[in-house]
Amino acid sequence: MEIITKGSYETKDLGRKIGAEIKIKLDNARPKNASIIALIGDLGSGKTTFVQGLAEGLGLESRIISPTFILMRKYFITDFEKTPGSQPGDESNSDMSSTLEETQRYQRGEDVIPKKIGKESELYFYHLDLYRIEENVDAEIENLGIRDIWSDPENIIAVEWAEKSHEIISKANYLINFEHISEDIRKIVIMKNE
Asked: Is this prediction's pTM over 0.85?
């Protein structure tokens, strides 16, 4: 499928739609391995913008920034329920608490219990950026534990600069190529391997 986007909003919206599609599929059935989205394209072609939309489509409210310098970021995809034993009127556990606040509390190790999503499980979103890896890509994949990550069906992985690893491309459920046509226009080609 080939799509032309005319601005970052449209690129992000396309990511949002793909993210929602993936989440619906995972709510209905789990694959035997992680869901991998391989992103290919030059600098400034819209990969990170797409990933921001993808994360929104998956239900993440966290700010998504490129992990270029740290190679990988991990996000917990969840809804939250009240902690058992909470008292009526306890604002920290009220149903009105924002997911963002509860996510922050969870990350600090406080007593927030994540609800299971879909088939009684927790989902994680990994955002990888292989741009800075110049040599020994397979060794770096091993060092980062990426092989373990993609073997877990509870994980969703978006990989920028995926063309640096034939192994990632061969395992990808979505292979998405970004082409910079002009200042605001991008050609995005999506190939599904499901």
From this structure: no
